[in-house]
Specification:
By secondary structure, this protein is mainly alpha-helical. About 40% of the residues lie in helices and about 5% in strands.
């Protein structure tokens, strides 16, 4: 498709929100300028039969021509637009395609999440939808938890500052570890879910207190990731320490002779402030994780080889088994190697002690 000449900037500009979906942004830009969604879509190159997208369940895919025209209509550079609208370039539409604008449903499990209502304040009457990454997120600036539960759960965290602090640590871990951090966070959340469902570790203490603050009971499954989040981040940090050692064939204690499972699980219990609870049964969830994260370098080879240095904490960690492929979209639990799921019976959970 070829359209001659650049577009003039629309009279009113929509302030972009980082991570916003294209459908959400198009709706807000159209309404700010007194246009219908279809009118704006045709303005940037859509066919006459284009229909309005539902930003809660659908995304708008743009070809190269439509992307450039949207940038011109918005009064920003294409690079600036792509930085804010993270799904802008996720399109297989070529520059020669006649249809430069396509409305598609999000894949199952990839539903967008409403942005923090306070972040979206002043940006029009429509809610702002963010591209799917997980089914919940934390707004550090406004201290709010936003979840996918019908797209409408937003919880103030003024009385739960440890959740915000944990999210800051999570972001730091992701910067240091790269994509592998998502796999470890998924595994850590699944371990915390195991503890929560088996009524182990903090279920009588801090988790019950958080439920009381939120005004929910154990039947509110949407709140479980929030309730266990600080402890899950602590476990993910401990997993990262172990995985950096595993990457060079070393044990948790730094020696070549093998993995010290009991020592590491006890150390995690100490970091959580739950040493007794860990010894009383909490270690089983971690040991199930260790089964899939064994050191596969033979002991003889480790003893004979030179001692390799662990990967520096500031360097991303390469993907290793069982996480050679880490999905970047969808529920966080889908990136985990652990088989159980929140709300499902735990009795069939395959587990055996790590050797």
């Amino acid at each position: 498709m070829r359209i001659e000449g650049p577009l003039e900037r629309l009279p009113r500009r929509a302030v972009m929100v980082r991570g916003e979906t294209v459908a959400s942004y198009l709706w807000r830009l159209a309404e700010l300028n007194g246009m219908g969604f279809e009118d704006l879509a045709r303005h940037i190159g859509a066919s006459g039969t284009v229909r309005a997208a539902d930003p809660g369940i659908e995304e708008v895919r743009l070809g190269p021509v439509a992307r450039q025209r949207l940038a011109e209509a918005s009064g920003v550079t294409l690079a600036h637009l792509a930085q804010a609208l993270v799904s802008l370039n996720d399109s297989g539409i070529s520059a020669r395609a006649r249809r430069q604008v396509e409305v598609e449903p999000w894949p199952e499990g990839w539903m967008p999440v409403r942005a923090c209502a306070l972040c979206a304040a002043g940006r029009g009457e429509r809610p702002v939808w963010r591209a799917p990454g997980e089914q919940w997120t934390v707004c550090v600036r406004h201290r709010r938890w936003t979840a996918l539960e019908r797209g409408r759960v937003q919880v103030g965290l003024e009385l739960l500052p440890e959740v915000v602090e944990a999210h800051v640590r999570r972001l730091r871990l992701e910067r240091r570890m790269g994509l592998y951090a998502r796999a470890l966070l998924a595994d850590a959340q699944q371990v915390a879910v195991y503890w929560w469902q088996c009524r182990q570790m903090a279920w009588r203490g801090v988790w019950r207190k958080r439920q009381e603050i939120l005004g929910v009971d154990r039947s509110a499954l949407w709140a479980v990731p929030l309730v266990v989040f600080p402890e899950a981040v602590t476990v993910a940090e401990a997993m990262a320490v172990r995985e950096r050692q595993r990457a060079v064939g070393r044990s948790f204690a730094g020696g070549p002779a093998g993995w010290s499972t009991g020592r590491w699980t006890a150390w995690v219990g100490e970091r959580l402030g739950m040493r007794e609870e860990m010894a009383a049964g909490g270690h089983r969830g971690l040991e199930a994780w260790l089964v899939s994260h064994r050191n596969t370098v033979p002991v003889v080879e480790r003893l004979a080889g030179e001692q390799a240095r662990a990967v520096p904490r500031s360097a991303p960690l390469m993907l290793m088994e069982p996480h050679r492929v880490v999905p970047v979209h969808g529920p966080l639990e889908e990136a985990s190697c652990l088989p159980w799921r929140l709300g499902a019976p735990m009795t069939g959970m395959p587990w055996r002690p790590a050797g």
